[in-house]
Amino acid sequence: MSVLKLIGVLLDYPRDELWQHGEELLEACDDPALSPARRRQLQAFVRDLLATDPLDAQDRWLATFDRGRSMSLLVFEHIHGESRDRGQAMVDLIDAYRKNGFELDARELPDYLPLLLEYLAHRPQAEAKDWLHHIGHIAGMLAARAAERQLPHAVLLEILVEAGEGKVNLAVLRQRASEEVRDDTVEAMDRLWEEEAVRFGADAPSQDCDPPHRSPARAQPREIQP
C-alpha cells in the first residue's frame, strides 16, 4: 500500500472492515519515503484508531468532516464554493479518471479527497506530486484547522503538504486558522440552516453545484477499477 493510498484510507469514513486490516495499515506506515518521525506519527494515528470502538471512530469522523464546510474533504468546495465552475471542474476530473482507465463504482463525488488520493496512488509519481502541489494550499489549510482543533488528522494532511513540495507556510495558516470563527458549532449550524432555507419553484437555487451532504451511506465501500 502506497503512502497516498494509506492517507486516503485513514482520511476516509472509518468503515467497520478497517479494523480487520490493522497489521496491513501499520506496515504501510513504514514507508521509506517518509521521515522516521512521520512514520512514528502515522503508526500512532493507526494504533489510536484501532484501539477506538468503530462506532466512536465513526462519530468522531462525522463530527470532524461532516459539520460545517471548513473541514470538508471535497477539494473543489474550497476552490469554487457553490459556483458553476465547480460542476465543470468535477466533469473534467471524471474525464481525467476515465482517460486513465478508472471508473467510479459508487456515487461519491470525484473531488472527494480520499478518492482522489486513491487515484493518484496509481498514477506516475511526477503526476501525483503535481496534483498535490496544486492542492497544497487546501491540504495546508485543512491541516492548520485540524491542528487548531487538536484533531489527530492534522498529521495526515501535513504529510500531503510535504508530498506536494509546495511553498505552503503552515505556521501562517495555523495563525489564520486560530483567528477563524468555527462553523461546526451548534449556533453556526443553526445559522447555516436558516441561510439555506428550502425554496421551490422559480426561486429555487440551481442544483448543479449544491454542496453535497456527506454521510455514512455516501461513504460506503467503493472501488476504483483500473
TrEMBL record:
Entry keyword set: Nitrate assimilation
Keyword field contains Magnesium: no
Gene3D superfamilies (alphabetical): TorD-like
Region (Disordered): 200-226
Entry-linked InterPro entries: DMSO/NO3_reduct_chaperone, NO3_reductase_chaperone_NarJ, TorD-like_sf
NCBIfam families found in the cross-reference section: narJ
Protein name as catalogued: Nitrate reductase molybdenum cofactor assembly chaperone
Organism this protein belongs to: Stenotrophomonas bentonitica
Organism placement in taxonomy: Bacteria, Pseudomonadati, Pseudomonadota, Gammaproteobacteria, Lysobacterales
